[in-house]
Specification:
The protein is α+β, with helices and mostly antiparallel strands. The protein has nine helices and seven strands; from the N terminus they run H-H-H-H-E-H-E-E-H-E-E-H-H-H-E-E. The chain folds into three domains: 5-107; 114-185, Helix Hairpins; 193-342, Heat Shock Protein 90 (2-Layer Sandwich). The chain has helices at residues 5-24, 32-75, 91-146, 153-185, 197-213, 235-251, 283-286, 298-303, 310-320, and strands spanning 193-196, 218-222, 230-233, 258-265, 269-275, 326-330, 334-342. Its EC number is 2.7.13.3.
């Protein structure tokens, strides 16, 4: 109560009355009746004057400031702490608590904006470089042909193929950008159904065998022939996840290395692991490899192709299936990527037709 106008006025009035009574008691003419009357009158007048002064000159203005601050907070969708402050609290404590919480909320908002600004700068720098590479390559080949090399059929065919390859890379980059934007915006629809996970993996292996043979890389698929690998998920999008992980395992593997794909059956889910024998990933890079355009070794990664968006898309697709992509790696020995999917009998709680974040 001491922080309210009445509490402060009461305390000050008692102090003033006691001081006056103590002073009057020193006079010879004073008696108990005079002291009592003087103390009571002094207390009453002091209490009224102090209470009214505090209430109308200070507390009412503080109350107005508090009301304005509360209205500002209610318009701030990120601020929720004001709902917890009870109306019965004194204005001084209320406004102090509100200002403290509001300042904390604004600090968090500023930190978020700073992070977003940093991300925006990095994103535009990355995408500018990624777009520039295939455009400049195709431009160079075409200009060379226009300058006269088109007359040489051997050179013409070689340069046209390289220009076409650069334009294909550009198309892949644009398509991946559209895909990841749709995923993050929630526009991509999921169509979960029962399908054989083992068959999807075999299709991916068959599709990428030619790419592996060029580097003498052997693909091993381990599974139990007696087990049914029926799962419930979006078949096309899980195929893309598998395609991306196996393709990366081939791309970043050592020559004549091995890619091992293993599927394990657990009580309620399957675990898929894709292991390579490549250069591995440094612990400092592990936390960032799922960021858009992040490359562990930028120059070598670009030479090997790819848009730098594959793992980011994998991450978002699996999050849409309420799963996570796991990774463990030892530099110089290789990496293992893994994820889980439920049994067909345990249908996932994915909202039909929408990506859940």
């Amino acid at each position: 109560m001491i922080s309210t106008s009445k509490g402060i006025a009461f305390g000050l009035a008692i102090s003033i009355a006691l001081l006056l009574v103590a002073f009057l008691s020193l006079l010879e003419a004073s008696n108990s009746i005079i002291l009592l009357a003087a103390g009571t009158l002094t207390f009453s007048i002091a209490y009224l004057l102090i209470h009214l002064s505090l209430e109308y000159l200070i507390f009412r203005e503080i109350g107005n400031i508090y009301s304005v601050l509360e209205k500002i907070q209610k318009k701030d969708t990120t601020f929720k702490a004001s709902n917890k402050i009870k109306a019965s609290l004194p204005p001084l404590k209320s406004i102090q608590a509100n200002i403290h919480d509001y300042a904390a909320a604004k600090n968090r908002e500023i930190e978020t904006l700073q992070k977003n600004e940093t991300f925006r700068r990095e994103f535009f720098a990355d995408i500018s470089h990624e777009l520039k590479t295939p455009i400049f390559a195709a431009q160079g080949y075409i200009h060379t042909l226009m300058d006269g090399a088109v007359e040489d059929h051997t050179v013409r065919d070689k340069f046209l193929k390289r220009a076409a390859k650069s334009l294909n890379n550009l198309e892949d980059l644009v398509q991946d950008l559209i895909t990841i934007n749709q995923i993050e915006s929630g526009f991509i629809r999921f169509h979960p159904s029962n399908f054989d996970l083992k068959e999807s993996i075999q299709e991916v292996v068959e599709q990428l065998e030619g790419k592996a043979l060029k580097r003498d890389i052997h693909i091993i698929f381990k599974y139990d022939k007696a087990t049914s690998y029926q799962t419930y998920a979006d078949k096309d999008k899980i195929f893309r996840v598998l395609q991306n992980l196996v393709s990366n395992a081939i791309k970043y593997n050592k020559d004549s290395g091995t890619v091992t794909i293993q599927i394990n059956d657990h009580k309620n889910h399957f675990t898929v692991k894709v292991k390579d024998q490549g250069i591995g990933i440094h612990p400092d890079d592990l936390k960032r490899i799922f960021e858009r355009f992040y490359r562990v070794e930028k120059s070598r990664s670009r030479e090997k192709g790819g848009t730098g968006l594959g793992l980011a898309i994998v991450k978002h697709i699996l999050e849409g299936h309420q799963s996570k992509i796991g990774v463990s790696s030892t530099p110089g020995k290789g990496s293992v990527f893994s994820f889980e999917l439920p049994h067909a009998a345990k249908k996932m709680a994915v909202e039909e037709g929408h990506l859940k974040k």
